[in-house]
Amino acid sequence: MASHERVSFKTGDLSFYSLIQSYSNSLDFGSLDKVLTQMKFERRLFLEKNFILMFKAYGKAHLPDKAVDLFHRMGDEFQCRQTVKSLNSVLNVIIQEGFFNRALDFYSDVIASKGLSIQPNGLTFNLIIKALCKLGSVDHAVEVFRGMPLRNCAPDNYTYSTLMDGLCKEDRIDEAISLLDEMQIEGTFPNHVAFNVLINALCKKGDLGRASKLVDNMFLKGCVPNEVTYNALVHGLCLKGKLDKAVSLLNRMVLNKCMPNDVTYGTLIDGFVKKGRAADGASVLTSMEERGHHGNEYMYSSLISGLFKEGKPEHAMRLWKEMVEKGCKPNTVVYSTLIDGLCREGKLEEAREMLFEMKNKGYLPNAFTYSSLMKGFFSTGDSHKAILVWKEMADNNCSHNEVCYSILINGLCKDGKLTEALMVWKQMLSRGIKLDVVAYSSMIHGFCNANLVDQGLKLFHQMLYQEPQSQPDVITYNILLNALCMQNRISRAIDLLNMMLDQGCDPDFITCDIFLKTLREKVNPPQDGREFLDELVVRLVKRQKTIGASKIIEVMLHKFLLPKASTWAIVVQQLYKPKKIRLAINECWSRLYH
Fold first, then answer.
1. Between 57 and which of 24, 185, 571, 587 could a Cys-Cys bridge form, CB atoms 3.0 to 4.6 Å apart?
2. Whether residue 16 sits in one domain with residue 109
3. Which pLDDT tens digit goes with each residue over 404-449?
């Protein structure tokens, strides 16, 4: 007879089981250990369901290692045979903690153990497929999925949905959609989760046509779209800039008795703000409140920020007051947004007062709050107060991040304090803080303003060997191009422009203006720059930089410097190939004449 069969149920066992349930619910592990010790001493009968209660308790307490340890003690110490139920319970605890590799190792050890002989079931495979997908091992997950029938396990909706989600995250949407067809052929009708995984992926990719077809398919299968479906569609429409259609969809959602939630409204409001239509976003908030929903602090933060950026400070302040009056408590994010907006408007004293109020109400300013104030003081020429804000950050144990350092360096350089800026730069390097493109560009600007262009160029060449976030952008190039042209080093500026194109950085309107001014004022005889820009357009088109070419064409039309007929022919041929590029040139004409 096996060791786990030596004991049988006794009077009083139920009392121990009740204690296990009670202590598991209250996460009292000390008492649980005492109960287990007493039960073992009295040779009580241990049931698997008692251990599953304890596994779940360890899961709630974020103690996966304790669950694994208890699983291994079940048979040897407590004579309770582990089954697939225990395996799945512990696997779930480990996966919920995000320890996916640990879960796979645990599974392999248990299945390989000859003493346990546990056969995995459908839930086991679902958990393993989930772990593999989370690790990005989608091909391995597909192998496990294909092997399920060999273990007499049929995939269910959860299996398919998990694998679809993994494929979509790897940008393998077509394969995920083919699984939808396969599951229906196999007799598993897709539920909301399966459809929503695919619709969400298509919307994020901007493929709204296929997403809408899947919605139609949902209806045909008797699966009515829910708020998750609509949220995905609203998000997709916002990404494509089709905000009015998103509003129509929201209204249709209400008509279909599917109530929008905070995610729906938040997505739509954020979409309007990003498109420079914060006032329309505020109307969505009003509509939301009329339907019985209350705006949260994140919606208000987004709208207030947008209104300030669009030059509507009165509307932003009105919204702030409404927020407070309606009982929505501002948090650090909202306060920081308001302080940033006031700084943008040059209302530094009001921003200071808001910071004081923020602290009094127990909200700690963060790096963004202080950065906004520093930038505000620098923009008004008060570098002394900006530096005091920097010191205040340190006094309040708020870490200086790369953004703060970049603002400080930029402000000091613009104020002509190159020595101080260099000291800050060296401090950044000594503390191992990553230098971003703003910090580099600011320092280069400081050198150029001090007529130390060669030092600026030296720093620029250092940038080229840095990480992507530190690579020179069009602003960096324009700073150096302008400095070189001012020193009449035109051939060197041309070399730098060539490098700019080789690095895949498109020139902009400022780049054009720098060279047009140079050709007009520093070349003998003066040139109008038509040939220069014409050649630039051709070079960009040859590099398939059609958007950049269209911007140069726009500059030429503004300056009445008409491109050559041959250039027009090349441009039109290239620009009218893809639909998106044709829209770009149409927008260019629209900006010219409206």
1. 24
2. yes
3. 888 999 999 988 899 999 999 998 888 888 888 988 999 999 999 9
CATH of the domain at 410: 1.25.40.10
Calculate ∠ Cα 193-264-318, nearest 5°.
165
Q: State the Cα–Cα distance between residues 104 and 106, nearest whole angstrom.
A: 5
Asked if residue 303 is part of any domain, the answer here is: no
Query: What does the pLDDT average to over 116-139?
Result: 94
The two tokens of residue 223 are 């699966």
Q: Alpha helix (H) ranges present in 363-417?
A: 367-379, 383-395, 402-414
Q: Are 215 and 201 in contact (CB under 8 A)?
A: no
Q: Is 582 helix (H, G, I), strand (E, B) or coil?
A: helix
Q: Which position has the token pair 């699966």? A: 223
Residues in contact with 377: Cβ distance below 8 Å, sequence separation at least 6, in sequence order: 348, 383, 385, 386, 389, 411
Helical packing angle, 530-542 and 565-575, nearest 10°: 30
Quick one: which of 162, 156, 158, 128 has its CA closest to 144?
Answer: 128
Same domain, 501 and 542: no
Q: Tokens standing for 573?
A: 């041929």
* CA 395 – CA 234 distance, rounded (Å): 44
d(CA 482, CA 517): 10
Q: CA separation (Å) from 126 to 97, 369, 437, 458, 568?
A: 16, 45, 45, 56, 59
Cα–Cα nearest to 282, from 229, 244, 319 = 319
Residues 6+ apart with CB under 8 A from 66: 29, 58
Cβ contacts of 469 within 8 Å, gap of 6 or more: 434, 436, 437
Domain residues for 576?
A: 532-594
Token pair belonging to 567: 């250039």
With left for phi above 0 and alpha for psi between -120 and 50, is residue 456 left, alpha or beta? alpha
* 129 assigned to some structural domain: no
- Quote the number of domains for the chain: 3
Cis-peptide into 64, omega within 30 deg: no
pLDDT in tens, 513-539: 999 999 999 888 888 989 999 999 888
Same-domain status, 39 and 87? yes
